[in-house]
Amino acid sequence: MAKLNMVQAINRALDEEMARDENVITLGQDVGLNGGVFRVTEGLHEKYGEERVIDTPLAESGILGSSIGMAIAGLRPVAEMQFSGFSYLMFAQLEGHASRMRSRTQGQHTVPLVVRMPYGGGVRALEHHSESHEATYAHLPGVKVVIPSGPSNARALLAAAIRDPDPVVFMEPKCSYRAFREDVPEEPQVMEIGKGQVVQEGADVTVISWGAMMRPTIKAVEAAQKDHGVSIELIDLLTISPMDTDKIVSSVKKTGRCVIVQEAPRSFSPSSEIIATINDHALMYLEAPVKRVTGFDVVTPYFGKEQSYLPNERRVRHAIEETIGF
Amino acid sequence: MAKLNMVQAINRALDEEMARDENVITLGQDVGLNGGVFRVTEGLHEKYGEERVIDTPLAESGILGSSIGMAIAGLRPVAEMQFSGFSYLMFAQLEGHASRMRSRTQGQHTVPLVVRMPYGGGVRALEHHSESHEATYAHLPGVKVVIPSGPSNARALLAAAIRDPDPVVFMEPKCSYRAFREDVPEEPQVMEIGKGQVVQEGADVTVISWGAMMRPTIKAVEAAQKDHGVSIELIDLLTISPMDTDKIVSSVKKTGRCVIVQEAPRSFSPSSEIIATINDHALMYLEAPVKRVTGFDVVTPYFGKEQSYLPNERRVRHAIEETIGF
Amino acid sequence: MKMSEHSTIGISSKPKTKHWPDTCDSEAPCHTFSISSLQILDEHGNLDESRMPDVSSEDLVKLYRAMVLARLVDDRTLKLQRQGRIGTVPLCTGHEAVTCGATLAMRDEDWFIGSYRDLGGRLMRGEPIENGLLYYNGHEEGAVFPGGERTLPISIIIAAQCLHAVGVAYAMRMKGETETAVVCFLGDGGTSEGDFHEAMNFASVWQVPVVFVVANNQWAISVPREKQMHSRTIAQKAIAYDMPGIQVDGNDALAVYKATKDALDLARSGGGPTLIEAVTYRMLMHTTADDPTRYQPPEDLEIWAKRDPITRFRKFIEQKDLWDDEQQTDLEAQCKQKIEAAVAAFESRTDFKVDSPFDHVFGTSHTRIEQQRAEFLDMLKKESADG
Amino acid sequence: MKMSEHSTIGISSKPKTKHWPDTCDSEAPCHTFSISSLQILDEHGNLDESRMPDVSSEDLVKLYRAMVLARLVDDRTLKLQRQGRIGTVPLCTGHEAVTCGATLAMRDEDWFIGSYRDLGGRLMRGEPIENGLLYYNGHEEGAVFPGGERTLPISIIIAAQCLHAVGVAYAMRMKGETETAVVCFLGDGGTSEGDFHEAMNFASVWQVPVVFVVANNQWAISVPREKQMHSRTIAQKAIAYDMPGIQVDGNDALAVYKATKDALDLARSGGGPTLIEAVTYRMLMHTTADDPTRYQPPEDLEIWAKRDPITRFRKFIEQKDLWDDEQQTDLEAQCKQKIEAAVAAFESRTDFKVDSPFDHVFGTSHTRIEQQRAEFLDMLKKESADG
Ligand SMILES: Cc1ncc(C[n+]2csc(CCOP(=O)(O)OP(=O)(O)O)c2C)c(N)n1
Ligand SMILES: Cc1ncc(C[n+]2csc(CCOP(=O)(O)OP(=O)(O)O)c2C)c(N)n1
Ligand SMILES: [Mg+2]
Ligand SMILES: [Mg+2]
User: Which of C286, C307, C312, C314 is catalytic?
Assistant: First the structure.
């Protein structure tokens, strides 16, 4: 067991997977000698060499497009987008090719690649460095979208993503990168993609969140439990798409109430899809409207205003209270 | 009054706006001499010349990026993406600049542009020519997404989009381009963006659709009314984002039941947001789960399978029946 | 670095970046670049002997047969489309020398990565004629064929395939297949896309074994070359990357073959990528949905008809006594027979699985997909019950 | 077409596309291209008289003062960041000659479109020092200033601004402002993006009045030029578009000025776009979040320190008797005073409107936005009530 933060845990997973399979390579801007701007790829360049740890030119479509070719030809590329805010430059390659090569060729050609990208606010960064737009990727058929919330699941989900036969968008909550540590077992860990995790069971209300929002959510859940003696079921979504219908539906059927906490702008977002899923499969079990705590339908403000913009513990607590009191 | 199909009506709006305001220009692949691959820009090249009707090089980001510059400098560009399936190549320019220039500069610089694109299936076209991915654009703050359903509203909404002070993604249901004609008044028409339209009032169930799906939906509504004597409120959404909360909510409060018909893949889609909107504002009025008739979370198949894939009148009718019978 | 002896393609030596004050004399240009061109077989079928590449008679005939087959398939496909028996089809007439000439230079283990106007090459790579028919009639089944592991499906998204080509080439080198290369086809319009630029840059930085063959057919649908680019050649776009570039007569299959062969030799020997501009003309509509009379000067077709790649090649092999009228009659009959067999096979295909889109979203399926599949099949059942 | 007399920049004549058989002699290269380079003031401050552009003494001093101010603002900003009084900041030290030299050649009505490393030019365009501080401390208020209508805000997305520049230039010509041009700044890394290519192509096809100034500072964060591109110069990337291109000593403000001035003259006379590569060096970290000791050879900094753009310019104006120590002391004092005033103003700013993001989503608001604004303000009220 080692106590690792998320950066170290992701680095560990990359290292383990590169050691396990010589077809695994990583590429992106500054991922080599510099170890990535967040140091996620630190040490890999030294250990695996320039051929497997590639400092690419400054071109996101180039990175993803060439990764697609590599994946078709048998490699397992792990591409890094320096920030999710720049990843839209490769959206066309992802939508047009990575997500479709399997269906286009009925399985003859496949694109097993991972595209990692730090996302989200809270680190006082420049414009384009703080968005939470996972829904943009989640609406794409043929692509999986995974968002870990802590060191341990980050490591195990990244390993799964690398072994997955299809393209996985792996979004890393950058404000959790160094925020806390967790015990991480020595031996490699692999977690199934497509499944949420019930962090704690409860009877009165289901709270669903993911990524960086898990931390304020956990605090709010604890506070609400303490203050109101209420029993809360907490779900960490982990995979945004394809979404774990069963876990959401069975929990809401049990509790009849639900609060969703997301950093993303509200409209056309994961919370919309979660609510729709509940509608499709468990509407008649609802005793209160699903409550959502979200970012807003505004351009993510510069960091001078991000503290007021971002959902926080208090907003989640209020939402839980409102939902219980409904 | 003239009887126009949608291609002619859009062409009319472009012509009228170009005549009205010399800053309006149009650019894209093949929009000049060729009049666009769907002939939407037919005659404009001859009438307004090469400077205002520009055959661009084959580069979507180039088209949108240069349109952004034009808009900043006082023109009103109407950019055409030949098919929505190629529009993702300009997604980064739209997300990174068109949608944000206003907020970035607190209004000092603005980007009044329209990006038109035919979308959707049903015309037996090649891969990438049949998708309905409006949700990808709808999740972007700072961008409006408009989808007309017929000649008359297409013309009036395009005029509004051109006059709008902000970027508008204008998605044209290509299978409705020449499918039917409507009376279109001689004088220019402008419709407000951001509002849905109640096509017919009703008491028992709200049916919401937009774009190409309005046609099978209208037929299904008529059939259901005839067969079951049920009173249906039909809403044509017209603007996908920002969505007309009021119209949806007040209708569902009245009817207590709702069916949504969309061509797009189901998850993370407009129907998800509509359901979430109902949840947020009218959940307790619902007497049945909202029913959605949608595309599926698969890569849009080649046209050999599109007839089975696409929602049709019968599916909508079944959904209405199920919802009423719930 | 081994290179074919009479290579048309060389890499210029590469001095280091300038660091003033080690400046070169500012009066004279510091760096000069050039682009050369190649024609071996002129439009009358006359050979420039001095440039004749080393091709066996067998291969010359093979090349000719491939071009004729492509032309005849194109003819037939156009007719099928006009009869409403197939969907929208892009046509390849005029491009036979580009695609077949380049493909002849390839080895089986090389990767063929192209777009929708490479029919001749695809057929040479073993793609069944039936495939194109299926594909253009809306069936994914037409995008795959046994043995097609190294022939990627058509990339409809212009120029996107250039990056795939670079990635594949990188993978080949990394996997130790150092003699394997990639040939990537695109059009003149394709060179305007950002992806083309990024691919050229990645290929040159990584020095991977890829050959870009641009079929400059003067049009991107209705947009003529002059509105597409200001550059006098496409070959010179290679200079931006210090990559070898050459402009060849794209209606001269020998020139295309030689340039591709030289580029492949260079690539196999570790010499990196090459850009080949093959100057040709699109002799038919862009696709069957297009009407070129709206934008095309009719005299163009007359001029270019005289430069037809097949006619001149036939003259050439006839002069070499490799071909005669009887062989021609036989070939045409054989082609037609093959084509008719393919049409028949295509039209009798009924084994399409209605829910196959659900099979191929992911390699390992997911509840959400399976629930939707069940719902979809259930709906279809209800619909057919409804009659 | 009027051009400045001693222009460094010319457009080569443009023959039509090759149509075989009007082929040029295949033995010799058909097309030749060249890139020249320019240095006027060497690293010791020695002037190449023959190339001296026509700049008034006043402008020389103005240019010097602008470079010094930029350097001092950079120093101060770095300190503020280290003291935690401001967020992450990119630094501009080393780039002064590029950005100030080019800006000196501009007219007020020209458009300045750049990125985050153009501080000197921005200040010359009238951007208050306070702006950068606000901007890098997370306030949109720092992205706008009165009179900034033709100075676009920083484009953080690399190379995206190149396309905006082309569009603005197009609009200017269309609106009859034929004497107005656009100067667009980007970095060496930026030339790898597809948007750069598309902008170069659009600019050359449309022949719009835009000058691209690439500050080739050898690095894109940790990625050195050799991993960024295989080309020996960036200037040669212009050849792909038959656009004039030139490589200048980017630490020589006179060379940058002259190349920009010539390019602007060309642009104003309808001669279209130009690409200028200004060879320089990033003398500090990429941003304050970066640690160049991880990747940068330390000797580089020594070498480049000797080529400092400000030192050599000071020597030059001193030799011309336009500058002396006393003026230097005064200048530094003035700059510091301005800077401190700006810091004080910045730190006393409290007029930020918490709900301003809701004000600027759209020009005409929408119920959905207003509902969310109300909810947001309500939440803030509750939060502050909670204490
Ligand atoms: C990214 C993208 N944009 C637009 C299109 C629509 N389109 C299909 S073919 C074509 C022209 C292509 O021209 P060129 O590259 O010269 O190839 P050619 O058709 O002449 O062989 C266009 C614009 C597309 N397929 N992909
Ligand atoms: C599209 C995009 N990708 C990645 C980044 C992250 N990033 C910021 S600066 C930079 C390097 C830029 O290098 P260069 O263009 O040479 O400019 P310089 O910083 O050297 O002035 C990178 C990769 C970005 N801002 N935009
Ligand atoms: Mg072409
Ligand atoms: Mg740089």
Answer: C286
What's the whole-model pTM score?
0.97
Are residues C32 and D33, on separate chains, in Cβ contact within 8 Å?
Answer: yes
Number of Cα atoms under 13 Å in the Cβ half of residue C306: 9
Structure tokens at C22: 């080690």
Q: Does domain B2-184 have CATH number 3.40.50.970?
A: yes
HSE-CB at B187 with a 13 A cutoff on CA atoms is: 1
Which of A93, A272, A286 is the best residue to mutate to test the B interface, defined by the most B CB atoms within 10 Å of its own CB?
Answer: A272
Q: Is D300 on the interface with C (CB under 8 A)?
A: no
Q: Which letter does DSSP use for residue A300 in this model?
A: P
Location of each CATH 3.40.50.920 domain in chain B: 197-324
Cβ atoms within 10 A of the Cβ of A121, count?
A: 23
What DSSP character marks residue C287?
B
CA dihedral D232, D234, D237, D238 (to 10 degrees): -130
DSSP string, B215-233: HHHHHHHHHHHHHH---EE
Fold (topology level) of B197-324: Rossmann fold (3.40.50)
Does the beta carbon of C221 sit less than 6 angstroms from any atom of ligand 1? yes
Mean pLDDT per 10-residue segment, chain D (387 residues):
47 50 57 94 94 97 98 98 97 98 98 97 98 97 96 98 98 98 98 98 98 98 98 97 97 98 98 98 97 95 97 97 98 98 97 96 96 97 83
Q: How far is A48 from chain C (nearest CA, A)?
A: 13
Q: Please give, rounded to a whole number of angstroms, the shortest distance from the CA of B197 to a CA of chain D.
A: 16
Res. C274: pLDDT tops 90: yes
Secondary structure E strands in chain B: 2-4, 24-28, 53-55, 76-80, 114-119, 144-146, 168-173, 182-184, 197-200, 205-209, 232-236, 239-241, 258-261, 291-293
Q: What is the model's pLDDT at position C1?
A: 31
The pLDDT tens digits of the residues spanning D281-340 come to 999 999 999 999 999 999 999 999 999 999 999 999 999 999 999 999 999 999 999 999
What are the start and end residues of each CATH 3.40.50.970 domain in chain B? 2-184
The pLDDT assigned to D152 comes to: 98
C-beta atoms of B284 and A284 within 8 A: no
For domain D3-10+31-352, is the CATH number 3.40.50.970? yes
Q: Is the ipTM of this complex over 0.85?
A: yes
- D143 to chain B nearest CA, in Å? 6
- CB contact (8 A) between residue D383 and residue A30: no
Q: Distances from the Cα of A49 to the Cαs of A25, A27, C132, C271, D177, in angstroms?
A: 10, 12, 43, 21, 54
Under a CB-based contact definition with an 8 Å cutoff, are residues A201 and A255 in contact? no
Residue C285 burial (CB count, 10 A): 18
Instruction: Catalogue the active-site residues of B.
Output: 129
Among the partner residues D43, D239, D303, nearest to C33 by beta-carbon distance: D239
Asked if C196 contacts B26 with a C-beta cutoff of 8 angstroms, the reply is no
Q: Which residues have CB under 8 Å from C386's CB, separation 6+? A: B314
Q: How far apart are CA D14 and CA D265, in angstroms?
A: 20
CB contact under 8 A, C20 and D26: no
Name the nearest CA neighbour of B76 among B68, B87, B65, B86: B68
Domain layout of chain D by residue ranges: 3-10+31-352, 356-387
Q: Which residue of D has its CA nearest to C160?
A: D194
Q: Measuring from each residue's beta carbon to the nearest atom of ligand 2, which residues come in under 6 Å?
A: A 29, 58, 82, 86, 89; D 117, 156-158, 187-190, 215, 217, 219-221, 282, 286
Q: How far apart are CA A161 and CA C86, in angstroms?
A: 40
Q: Indicate the burial class of D27 (C-beta count within 10 angstroms; 0-12, 13-18, 19 or more).
A: exposed
D360 has catalytic annotation? no
Q: Which residues of C touch A69 (CB under 8 A)?
A: 163-171
